[in-house]
Amino acid sequence: MTELTQDQKRLIILISNFTKPAKKRNEEETWIKKIPLLALVNRGIHLGVFEGYDFAPSLVDYMGTSRYANVSKEGEDDVADLREEGYIERLKLATSNHVYVSAYMSTHSGIKLAGSLEKPHHDAVDKLVKCKCGSPKSIESREDAPYLVCKKCGSEEKVDIFDIREVAYESGPVFSDIWLPPDSTK
Questions:
Q1: Chain segment 103-145, per-residue pLDDT in tens
Q2: Contacts of 18 (CB under 8 A, 6+ apart)
Q3: Measured by CB atoms within 10 angstroms of the end CB, which terminus of the chain is less buried, N or C?
Q4: What are the residue boundaries of the structural domains of the chain, listed by start?
């Protein structure tokens, strides 16, 4: 087992808050789909929960349509790393339009690990998953975006992963010596 980074620890806590593996054969399991998970990671980046993650627009399928979403490749890589370590599982689902969608769930060892992690990691993730009233939020996929919903007080918050912002940057040409004209002063 490799040492987990701060972001990986917080990611396993986040996934464990929204998923539940079955303990018995006939018990129900709870999974989180990929786009709502990516939306939570994106929100966590904006709130400072995931300090080592960045995001960029990427084409995704959401509710049968292709859309650009702010996706963290570092977050996706950490999900893959946590899968390799056996802390989360992935399920591939086929939609009615024959499109494959991934869903994730913490394993029993992932939940055990999440419970053993330091309090500052749990406090950071709580900024994402707890309502102002103190109750845990659930995540719902709606037509326009995923929403965080508090069942206790009824508050709703749109987690707009599809809000692609323009970023100011400067660029300039870079030419290697092969593309430059010969120096006539030599």
A1: 999 999 999 999 999 999 999 999 999 999 989 999 999 999 9
A2: 30, 32, 36, 37, 40, 129, 138, 139
A3: C
A4: 6-129
| pLDDT tens column, 35-48 | 999 999 999 999 99
Query: Coil, strand, or helix at residue 103?
Result: strand
Write the DSSP assignment of 119-156 as a string of letters: HHHHHHHHHHHB-TTSPBPEEEE-SSSEEEE-TTT--E
Tokens standing for residue 173: 């040409």
- Quick one: 185 exposed, middle or buried, by C-beta within 10 A (0-12, 13-18, 19+)? exposed
Confidence category of residue 2, pLDDT binned at 50, 70, 90: confident
Non-local (6+) Cβ contacts of 132 within 8 A are: 153, 155
The residues, ordered by sequence, that sit 6+ positions from 20 with a Cβ below 8 Å of its Cβ are 29, 30, 105, 106
